[in-house]
Design brief:
Layout: H1 2-16, H2 30-36, E1 49-54, E2 62-65, E3 71-74, E4 78-81, H3 87-99, E5 107-113, E6 118-123, E7 129-132, H4 139-145, E8 158-163, E9 169-174, H5 176-180, E10 196-199, H6 203-216
Helix pairs in contact: 1-6
Length: about 230
């Protein structure tokens, strides 16, 4: 038992002296990745709440919910299939339909509530889980929705996992420290449906966990004996 504990202690001391990898080689700059995979225009889904506004004819203003069959009902034109349309496409369609009925048409369509758009925040946050994506939400706002980050989070190496053009997982590194210190606000990326924000555990937190699991629980040290580890090369 003493021999095994000695080996574990030696391995720990060697590991604590190793250099930490700051930038994984498999991940590129987040701004370059975001530009390579631009955000797609949102497409209307069943259950979405739409706000239709007429600038010159406010009596036609309406707020409707997209039915499960993809249709909505509006004054004068009746039912209209809107499933998978972008808000811009729906605006152009309504503009064309109402042009024949009213003299001046200036219409805006806004998605007031999204039916099934979700994001996931996991790792070293206080309340990990699924959260609704309503409107524009950034990485920092998503972390706030999850109760904020823990002291054990590795803020320099947050990972944003996103679906790529061919639905392949795309990992984007985010340096939260630079965002917090206003050094690079461009990394506070707008999230898309089904994005995953993962906050890994910091190296110090991993060391503390290792100490608890392998040193405190296995080595025959009395509680009154202190110890320290050096990180010098």
């Amino acid at each position: 038992m003493i021999r095994v504990c000695s080996i574990l202690l030696t391995m720990f001391l060697l590991a604590s002296c190793g250099a930490m990898v700051q930038n994984p080689t498999s991940l590129s700059d987040p701004r370059a990745q975001t530009n390579s995979y631009p955000q797609k225009a949102y497409r209307i889904q069943a259950g979405d709440e739409l706000d239709v506004r007429f600038f010159y004819n406010p009596e036609l203003n309406d707020r409707v919910i997209v039915r499960p069959d993809g249709f909505i009902s509006l004054q004068l034109i009746g039912e209209l299939m809107v499933l998978d349309m972008t808000p811009g496409q729906l605006t152009a369609t309504l503009q064309q339909r109402y042009d024949a009925m009213i003299q001046r048409t200036a219409i805006t369509v806004t998605v007031r509530a999204f039916a099934a758009q979700r994001i996931y925040v996991d790792g070293e946050v206080n309340k990990p889980g699924l959260f609704p994506l309503t409107g524009q939400v950034t990485v920092v706002q998503a972390i706030a929705m999850a109760g904020g980050y823990k002291d054990s989070a590795r803020l320099k190496e947050i990972i944003l996992i996103r679906r790529g053009p061919a639905n392949e997982p795309l990992a984007i590194p985010i340096n939260l420290e630079e965002i917090i210190n206003s050094k690079n606000m461009g990394q506070d990326i707008l999230l898309l449906p089904y994005d995953i924000v993962f906050l890994p555990k910091s190296p110090i937190a991993n060391v503390n966990k290792w100490v608890t699991m392998y040193i405190k629980n296995n080595l025959p040290f009395s509680p009154g004996i202190g110890y320290y580890f050096t990180t010098q090369q």
